[in-house]
């Protein structure tokens, strides 16, 4: 059972805007998830840092989900997270993709569902949300 953190709806994030998430990683973290999308069934970005889960060690796995259908996994091997540490992640929404800003690293993930607005955000797993800001 994955602990569910706060769920935000009606965020209204549009291209040119960004969401900054700050929080704490659990001391014995295995993995955590941040989902960004239209709602819980249409996820434009499933962001899943894995310390040690599903055969992945210190890897960030990203994906998209349309109802029950997952897309192709995208893996990033840069892993700036520490167990028991704090994490700050910024998601910048662009017309055709989302740029994920991590400490010392950034990458883009395509907007496969062509979402014009990102209304939904949630966190799950070994992460405690401390603040959420968007501009």
Structure description:
- Keywords: Lectin.
- Pfam families: Gal-bind_lectin (PF00337).
- Residues 5-135 form the Galectin domain.
- GO terms for molecular function: lactose binding; laminin binding.
- The protein is mostly beta strands and 135 residues long.
- It has a single domain (19-134), classed as Jelly Rolls (Sandwich).
- It contains no helices and twelve strands.
- It has strands spanning 4-8, 18-25, 32-37, 42-53, 56-66, 69-70, 74-76, 86-93, 97-102, 105-110, 120-125, 127-134.
- The strands form two sheets. Strands 1, 3, 4, 5, 6, 7 and 11 form a seven-stranded antiparallel β-sheet that branches. The protein has a five-stranded antiparallel β-sheet with strand order 10-9-8-2-12, with no helix packed on it.
- The protein is globular, with a radius of gyration of 14 Å.
């Amino acid at each position: 059972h994955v602990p569910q953190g706060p769920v935000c709806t009606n965020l209204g994030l549009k291209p040119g805007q960004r969401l900054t998430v700050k929080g704490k990683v659990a001391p014995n973290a295995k993995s955590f998830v941040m989902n960004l999308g239209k709602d819980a069934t249409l996820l434009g970005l499933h962001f899943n840092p894995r310390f040690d889960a599903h055969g992945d060690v210190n890897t960030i796995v990203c994906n998209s989900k349309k109802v029950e259908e997952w897309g192709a996994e995208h893996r990033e091997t840069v892993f700036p997270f520490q167990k028991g540490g704090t994490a700050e992640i910024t998601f910048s929404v662009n017309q055709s993709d989302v740029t994920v800003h991590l400490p010392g690293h950034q990458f883009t993930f395509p907007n496969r569902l062509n979402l014009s607005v990102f209304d939904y955000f949630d966190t799950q797993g070994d992460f405690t949300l401390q603040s959420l800001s968007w501009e």
